[in-house]
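To: structure desk
From: M.T.
Subject: fold request, one chain
Message: Could you run this one when you get a chance? Sequence is below, nothing fancy, just the single chain.
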Amino acid sequence: MVKDLYSLADTDEKFEAMVNDHVRLSFYADFLYPLAEDSTLDRFYLEQPEGDFSPELDVARTKIWDVLGKYKMKLMKFSPASFLHFGTTREVLRLVTEEIGNYSVLGWQGRIGTNYGGSDFAVSNSYVSARATIGDGSYIEDSYIHHNAQIGKCCVISGLTVGKSANHETSESRQNDAAGSQTSQAESNADKMITIPDNTVLHGLKLTDGRFVVRMYGVCDNPKEAKWFGKTMDKPLWVKSLFPVRDSVEEALEATLAVGNKWLADRNNQNPEPDDLCLSLKDSYNMADVTQILPWQEKLSDRIKVESLLKAIDEHTPANEASEIFRAGISKRVTGDLLTRAERLDNTDLSEFGRKIRIYYYLSKITQKERMEDLCFDTIRDTVLQSALNKTGYCSKYHIAKDEVVERLPVRVNWGGGWSDTPPYCMEHGGTVLNAAVTLDGILPIEVTIKKIPQNKIILTSTDIGSYEEFTDVGKLQDCHDPVDAFALHKAALIACGVIPYADKVSVDEICAHLGGGIYMNTRVINIPKGSGLGTSSILAGACVKGIYEFMGVPIADNDLYNRVMCMEQIMSTGGGWQDQVGGLAPGIKMVTADEALEQKIVSTPLRINEDAMRELNERFVIIYTGQRRLARNLLRDIVGKYIGNENDETEVLYRIQQLAVLMRLELEKGHIDGFAKLMNDHWNLSTKLDAGCTNTCIDQIFLVIEDLIDGKMICGAGGGGFIQVIMKKGVTTQQLQERLDEVFAESGVGVWKTDFCFGE
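Reply: Done. Structure tokens follow.
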């Protein structure tokens, strides 16, 4: 249609025939009428023209009819609907602030494309700092309003950056330059208050020469009148040169406000005397670089999304809800901006660490890219690891002090507070765990043997899986990230204890030379099925660390010992917390706690349980093997990810689990085993909320079969298989329990295992 219309005037001769004193074509009469379904050429000739009827007009209308007659316009009536006249500033302001509610049925609202959640003023495609002051009834569009902006009532702000971000601003603190080229204000002006009077319109424009102008006038001003903010001037506002041109939008805003404030304060009503670089409304429109308007709006829209996501993270909005900010998709520019901000955050600062991992995690949910989630968990790993390696690292001064060391440890049963010991939760909220060290069938099932050998090599063996390997290449010893590597744990222990460097290339010959010999290290887990849920892997790691330090004759504090094992798990990229190793390394029944901190200070406090209560607990507490191995699931990432993403009330559940650990301790120390059993049931219910996969048909069936014989039930470890634990009713024996299990699960491997609480030597 456009091409056909253009064909009517694509030469000077055609144009002169269609546009002259005798042919004054009207958009409504001459171009819309032929498109109507019931229109005819004869009636077209009779349509009232803009000028007079004439033969020339009939000829022009015939040509138009021939071109447009083949097209038809369809009119659709919307209901409910209303015609809105966007005329003066007053009408626009009234619509978006006072009358917007009248059109809520159409989905209209006074806040779109913004982080601002209040209702005192209207906002469109703008970021508004929570610390900015904005008067009621104002309208902000396509602008960035920082904390040091003070905007009056009933103002209109468009296309501006007002104020400057400060380093302590919650969601603006990580990047002081606003999006686009409109933000070059000096840092020294960051906290200078920018005050805008009531009833003021401010509109920023970039000019074709790269400079900026900010136009300022009153909401009620009429550009055709010679008045500015209601005071008389010598020229109409439209052509009066009032607005200074400057190199940046901030400078232009400051200069325009100075002119306007001076005019408002002038009681003598003298005409403003602008400098040579001032423009009028008319000139500024003509000189505006309109090609910069859309890019500015797009950059601002992206910046708003970035800040809105950061605000959502800071306010603990669940990741799935925060993803709605990007329901239309996320651009590479926004992703890059968020990643840059995350990279600038300091891992050694707890609050910045928390924000950093959440930027990565939230991005993983928004982009559906596993790489983002990897960045999150890599940051957690590196933070835990770096804290430990900074304290130890490779130590070339070690010298073998004993020819042989054998370290034997019990396993642990977990009672209360599980998962609260896992980074980053324990770092941000502290951890509280109640657990106990136990023997199985009267033996300590975790064993590590370390020997001095004359050869310059390191021999690693594992009796229970039948693996043996000799190492003379330090690179192979440093490679401990493969989850199927039989010696990943051995290698990680040597690195975490400083016997082998984490990354530096030092030859095995050199290492053995200063050690005074080679090393033979063998691990053994005695008669415990894989995936038991009894913390065997971490306790085995604890035995390795404890054995290595004793082998080197180096004393180590308990807290350093626990942290060194957590460091091992980060080296192996398996993650995990500190409760398992403490459960096996610290004897007896104990409460294990750590305050919130990046570097965990772990304290193990033995419970004071009287003899009668201890006797009753020994008689009533048993563990049962489910006959199935706990399936390897990506459980750590799942649970920790939900916490990082503030999903499903995860933090509240973890806090409640910590509370139960404290209450369990109280019941045990009061001698109330029944109360302890009841709390164990409560913990089990919370565990299923935390991870529905911790139970399955087999576990549920076992609990159902023995329901009338027990008062308390719970899984061991993360569940899904391995061992479960119960508190039997008073008078019930382990033999009765086994007989009941045999009735249903005969020859399936389901059975009671004998345990004793291990209180050390």
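Reply (cont.): The mean pLDDT is 90. Let me know if you need anything else for the meeting.
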